[in-house]
Amino acid sequence: MAQRVVRGGAQDYLFKGRIESRLLGRSIRYAMERQTVKTFRDIFERTAAVIGDDFFRSLVSHLASALRVRYALVARFVDRPPPRARTLAFWTGQEHGENFEYLLAGTPCEQVVSGGERRHYPEGLKELFCEDTKLVNLGAESFLGTPLINSQGHVIGHLCVFDDKVMYAESWRNSIIKIFAARAGAELERLLAEEALRWSEEKLRQMVQGIIGAIMSMVEVGDPYTSGHQKRVALLATAIGQRIGLPEEQVQGLHYAALIHDLGKIYVPAQILNKPGRLNDIEFNLIKMHSKVGYDILKTVDFPWPVADIVVQHHERVDGSGYPNGLIGTDILLESRILAVADVVEAMTSHRPYRQALGLDRALQEIQQGRGNLYDPKAVDACLELIREGYRFDIVADPIRKGNRRKGLQLNRWTL
Ligand SMILES: [Fe+2]
Description:
With 416 residues, the protein is α+β, with helices and mostly antiparallel strands. The protein folds into 3 domains: 49 residues; 146 residues, GAF domain (Beta-Lactamase, 2-Layer Sandwich); 191 residues, Orthogonal Bundle (Hypothetical protein af1432), CATH 1.10.3210.10. Strands 3-2-1-6-5-4 form a 6-stranded antiparallel β-sheet. Helix 9 runs antiparallel to helix 10 and helix 9 packs across helix 15. The longest helix has 52 residues. The protein binds fe (ii) ion. The site of fe (ii) ion (FE2) has 6 residues, from helix 13.
């Protein structure tokens, strides 16, 4: 103790032959405070700039060094029975050890977590917790641990140091571990919040994929051509969206909307959808209703993107000649303008029961001629770039056996 106090600045203690006990006490207290502040500053400086795993690793190594103990660990509480903890970082005395999970029962950590307050065992740890084989194997003799508490006051983990020699109760040690437990608790709470957010995002993603998959299966049962068409359109539309530089989130919405954009065709009898020969006005108008029917089905689903609006607008054209509402220019969602380009290119390059594929050249000619009047110029340019660079539809374009296919072109049905 005297050595440490002198190192901390109480030199008077050595040089004054005779000193009043009151002054000596003050000098020692002053030195210890200086030592505590210095230790606190050292750890703070070494851990301030790091977060996450790096923070916990840095914390345990510097804490063990500053508190002059061999071991230090920080662990999170695992909320599933039986009660257990998982280390976030573990300092073994010379290096960082592997993280591990352990049952809390019969350990000093259990006392910290269940009691929700600091625990100090200055000596005799092996005898007190003889069932804790890990501690026994490490030769742990003493322990100081404190809970990590979140902003709601719940214990979410613990920070502890332990040593293979006696660890006397000292206020500077308690102060330092208390302060850094608060910092570690805040960091752990942040990590847990991030984890919870990632979990809900993943759940949402799975839910959306489930809904989209169910709708696709429904369409596929009634009309395999439409199903394959939607998948190929989704791939091209996604590539166009990425090429234009849309944010990833928006591209994701475009992709999902494209996968089900012709959903409303389940309302149209297959005999009309696949009718060989020219459609009469009634049949044509019935097919044109599919975008609005798709909207009516999707509008009640609370997607994170405007999927129903993208779907209802995918046959709108920038000059107002589209349907169902004759929207003009940027009144049409960008996603729908992209979808329109991908839709027409795929439709013209695929076989249909009532016609053969028109070919890629005809499809590119169509969007070039319609650039700026029917189709969004940026979407057209991005699509042309992609095709020039070698983009090809990589899903089989004709899901139905060959044959039974009427020859001849029906230009008015490219983009239904
Ligand atoms: Fe359509």
